[in-house]
Amino acid sequence: MLRAVIARELQAYWLSRYEALQSLAVFAVVVVLFPLGLDPEPTQLALIAPAVLWGSALLACVFGLETLFRQELRDGWLDQALTGRWPLPLLLAIKLAVHWLYSGAPICLAAGAAGLALGLSDAAAQVAMLSLLLGTPTLVGLGSVAAALTANLTGGAMLSALLVLPLYVPVLVFGASAITLAQAGQGAQAPLYLLGCLLLMTLMLAPLASAVALRAVSE
Amino acid sequence: MNALTRTFHRWGSPPTFYRFAGRALPWLGWPALLLLLHGLYAGLVQAPADYQQGDGFRIIYVHVPAAWLSLFIYTSMAVAGVIALVWRMKVAEVYLRDAALAGAGFTAVALASGMLWGQPMWGTWWVWDARLTSELILLFLYLGVLALDQALPEPRQAARACAILAIVGVINVPIVHYSVEWWNTLHQGSSLSRFEKPAMPASMYVPLLEVALGTMLFYGWFVLARMRGSILLRERRQSWARAVAMEGA
Amino acid sequence: MSEFLAMGGYARYVWPSIGLFVGLLLWMALSARSHHRRALTRLRSVERGAA
């Protein structure tokens, strides 16, 4: 039964895959903006690369949030989910995982290449991918709470960006520090472990909080 | 436990809250005024100048109370949020909306006075100091709550949405503070850390405690007074609210 | 008095801080009172309209 739920979710994203992959495009475009606005000296670029990669990932993630619940509210998915046999947090966890698969995972892969283009060392580019792998699910989880709170609003995208970007600060700090440390040739374990802690917390709490939020605004 | 739940329910009922709050107001307002006046007088006039910072240190008498209140109010909003979500208490919903306004104000004043303190002491208006940075992020969190409250047309829905945001935010605040502190030590070392404060003499810290307590009481007065108005508006179709309005007319 | 107002040369920084803080408290006091009064007036006007 649950497999059917997962399959339906995957299929829904597959049908709108070009829209879902826009986060990746946004990420790439934002990354490209920085060298164009700066002196493209490799050493200088490598200095700001951690901030560029993570800042672009945050923005791409925020832009992706708008699609998270839009269709669901329109076609009555939520009403079905509230009366269905599966608890809403579980359904949301599945939805978020699939959303991450389309928005977060491509960014993690692209970050390696983008990091190298920005002049990061091989080791630092690997750490960049790893830190995004640990960090982007947290971004999606926190973002889903904001997306749920603004789901009923027209033009809620701007508001949900305002709500969620301050909450992204710890992820940004730990993620970018990991890359900086790796680029300096130091061990990046500490910030990566911290990112892992945030990830675990988000995995546990975000589906619950999003469910409460969706209920609160759709009553 | 029984007495506790009973008090809880009584305060949760809007007409009782309205009456009790009205009676509590003078007990908060007058002590607050006295404490604030005396504390500011003692701090600005009587306390000796700091041996390092001269009279510039006197900004502490407004900066620290404002910063404390900004954190206290956000935490209290999260507590009210839990009460509003779990027990659906109307009074807690009203509290959330009225507290956010004062909290944003105190955060802004804490930031501005921190900058005014930083300019003569550090020679710059802004340093990416862990405390200043987390305070700035707290301001953004408050602005988010206010914006969300504005955006949702239905007051009940807005209050519940703000409750969730406040709870998520309050889990985040310590993490933000820790992460910013960590980032700070990583990048700046101790070159720009705050002044090491030697133990303050009583003539310096007693006024600070007075202003802090006075501000806290004043905030209590403010939030009760404002909530009375908000509750009347929300219950305007109830007979008790109409009776209250006609009493003084 | 003028020595007090000069704040040992820190007047530029001390007084605006105090002013902002006191200004915030004043605004809070006024807004709380006017908020309550507005609510009362609105309820009264509704009552009168109904009567």
Summarize this structure as a short list of keywords or feature phrases:
heterotrimer, A: mainly alpha, 11 helices, 83% helix, elongated, C: 51 residues, mainly alpha
Largest protein-protein interface: B-C, 47 and 31 residues
Biggest beta sheet attributes of chain B: none
| Beta-strand content of chain A | under 5%
The N- to C-terminal Cα distance of chain B equals 41 Å
User: How many helices of chain A in DSSP terms?
Assistant: 11
Number of strands of chain B: 0
User: Regions of chain A with pLDDT < 50 over 5+ consecutive residues?
Assistant: none
Which word captures the global form of chain A? elongated
**Rg of chain B (CA only):** 21 Å
Helix-strand sequence of chain A: HHHHHHHHHHH
Query: What share of the residues of chain A lie within helices?
Result: over 70%
Give the helix/strand class of chain B: mainly alpha
Assembly type of the shown chains?
heterotrimer
**What's the alpha carbon Rg of chain A, rounded to whole Å?**
18 Å
- Elements of chain B, N to C (H/E): HHHHHHHH
Q: What can you tell me about this protein's structure?
A:
The complex is a heterotrimer of chains A (219), B (249) and C (51). Chain A is mainly α and 219 residues long. Chain A is built from eleven helices and no strands. The longest helix of chain A has 30 residues. Chain A is elongated, with a radius of gyration of 18 Å. Chain B has 249 residues and is mainly α. In chain B, helix 5 packs antiparallel against helix 6. In chain B, 47% of the residues are buried. The chains are: A mainly alpha (219), B mainly alpha (249), C mainly alpha (51). Chains in contact: A-B, B-C.
